[in-house]
Amino acid sequence: MPWTEVAVDRAIKRLSSADKNAGGRVLSYREALREALHQALKRDPRVFIMGEGVDDPLGIFGSTVGLHREFPGGRVFDTPIAENGLTGFAVGAALAGMRPVLVHMRMDFLPLSFDQIINHASKLCYMSGGRVHVPLVIRAIIGRGWGSAAQHSQSLQALFMHMPGIKVVVPSSAYDAKGLLLSSIADDNPVIVIEHRWLYDIKGGVPAKEYIIPIGKGVIRRPGRSATVLAVSLMVSEAMEAAKKLKEDGIDVEIIDPRSLVPFDWEIVVDSVKKTGRLVIADLGWRSGGAAEIILGRIHNKIRGYLKADVQIVALPDTPTPSCQRLERAFYRGSEDIVKAVKKTYGLHKR
Amino acid sequence: MARQVKDRDLIQIYETMLRIRLFEERVIHLYPGEEIRTPVHLCVGQEAIAAGVCHNLLKGDYLFTNHRCHGHCLAKGMSMSSIMAELYGKRTGCCKGKGGSMHLSDPDKYILATSAIVGGNIPMAVGAGLALKFRKGRNISVVFFGDGAVDEGAFYESLNFAALKKLPVLFVCENNFYATNSPQWARQPLDNIFKKGEIFGIKGFRCDGNDAAETFKTSKKLIEKIRNGSGPYLMECRTYRWKGHVGPDCDFEKGCRPKYELETWLKKCPVMRLEAKLLKKGLLTGAKIEKIRRRIRQKIARSEVFAKRSRFPAAGEVYADVYWKG
Question: Whole-model pTM?
Answer without folding.
Answer: 0.96
